[in-house]
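Message: Study each token:
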Amino acid sequence: MKPIILVAGATGELGGRISKALLMRGAAVRALVRPSSDGRKIEELTARGVEVVLVDMNDVAQLTAACTGVACVVSALQGLYDVVVDAQSALLDAAVAAGVPRFIPSDFSTDFTKLPAGENRNFDLRREFKERLDQAPIAATSILNGAFGEILTYNIPLLDFKKKSVGYWEDADWRIDFTTMDDTAAYTAAAALDPTTPRLLRIASFQLSARELAAVGEQVTTEPFALVRMGSRAELATHIQHARAAHPEGELELYPAWQQMQYNLSMISVQHDPLDNNRYPDVEWTSAPHLLAAALQARAASASR
């Protein structure tokens, strides 16, 4: 009999990829979906063979019924306190009530366990839920993937293909952890089906410094990339404090500009070491040149239409 893996947040980018990866590994996938979710995404899940269960994410009784017979709950929920803490706590209570043996929370990020409280608003929410999860009578595994590799394709200061530049804070040789969403999903699916996982698993498709990113940019475009120092780590932290104070409306937004800067600070404050990449040998890791070359090819093809 196929193990049933429950995925919360399956209509999102990462959750959808995790569901697909689980199906590829032969699991039965049950997706928790809000009634207000995009109907097309629900149809896509159903077409793949996912069992879709419409639930109120704050109704523990509904969630408990959905968790019945499940081998592992995987949360890919994204949001602020009402989602990361409240909704995940309801899901956790339901998993415990239904006798689910394992829980993988939506901790897909830089290793916040090594960062001080108060440095990253969204990580503080994960930290609060982690405290609840660690007190619950259920085995738990957080998968920490660093930054999603796809951010390198968005023409952000860290890697700007238009300006042919790589911006960095503090140290051009500090290596940042990046994992693509597909790689994160493939690894998460393997972990969900592995009853022996430890509390934390740290992964990275690749670890690159600003100097190395510039070299990759030159490799895939055959054009030189400039290294641009934007300031020190302390200067970035001060800039974040001022920006947050000046924009209190951002407290109600998932990714205000100052939160994005907090992610930058976190990325240059902790590294994943050692990596747990080799735990599942069949997971193939995407390289930075492959990711960026594919993104440039897709962009060129779109422009030519």
Remarks:
- The CA atoms of residues 65 and 180 lie 33 Å apart.
- The mean pLDDT is 96.
